[in-house]
Amino acid sequence: MIRPDIREPGDIDAAWLTAVLAEGGVDAEVRSFTARAVGTGQIGDSVRFTLDYARRGEGAPDSLVGKFPAAGTESRATGVALGNYLREVRFYQHLAPKALIHTPRCWFTDVNEATSQFVLMMEDLAPAEQGDQLRGVTLDQARLVTVEAGRLHASHWGDDGLDDLPWVSGSKAA
User: Fold this and answer.
1) DSSP string, 56-82
2) pLDDT of residue 150
């Protein structure tokens, strides 16, 4: 069995997706899949992978969503310059498991700090939809975001260990 590595969306194959599921503890074999872009991708590109199984193990999802660096040069440069790719991967690797917020299950994630190449394979939350920054949100959506933001901050409030993480904005290690 191969271990998943960092790949661009066009380089993903059924064997790699099978390895991603194995990383998440699911014994299944992906036969084929379809891939289509989701969201608007300001500084990253997201792709929904709908899976067809040769052998579907217990807990195997119908689909996964992968997040990757933006294909566009300017958008990718912005993601790198802001450190967004590294921070998102490290959040899922180190902080999400203890966070008091709702996050999609992370099946596999990795980042190359030298190149900022990354991949984040996560639970597909469909039929949830991406928000529209220009259109705004409803009052109920704003309440939900406010509650989740409070929970995120409460998750690690007073945690001096954050100062040891150079990828956390404003930490002593940054």
Assistant:
1) --TT--SEEEEEEE-SSHHHHHHHHHT
2) 95
